[in-house]
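Final report, Chapter 2: Outcomes

The project's central promise was a pipeline that accepts a single protein chain and returns its three-dimensional structure in a standardized token representation, suitable for archiving and comparison. That pipeline is now operational. To close this chapter, we reproduce one record exactly as it appears in the project archive, with the input sequence first and the structure output second.
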Amino acid sequence: ASAGPMPFPKVPVFQSTQAGQTGKTGFTAMTTIVREGGQMKLNMTFMNSSPVPLNSFAIQVNKNPFGLAPAQQLVVPDIAPGSTAEASLPMVPGQLLSGTQPTNPLFLQVAV
């Protein structure tokens, strides 16, 4: 008996060595897009290797070939130094259409 298709592994999209908008380092983000129960979701893992807690997360998704947009606000708990947090954000297609052909693999530009 098969358990269904294997999920795609999360891909690092921001490394802790990269400086963010404020020039600070220590934040890592890994993501994958999955389909669960007919709902498309952006699953994310956030890691904090900085010396201070991380909080007040928000997300912005740019226009893309499938028009994927968040179905709700991003909810991420505060992340203490040395800790990790998981988030799953339902996505809705047809909202932010770019009018461009999809790439393989899909490239989705997101700001957190």
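Archive annotation: The radius of gyration is 15 Å.
This record, like all others produced under the grant, will remain available to the consortium after the project formally closes.
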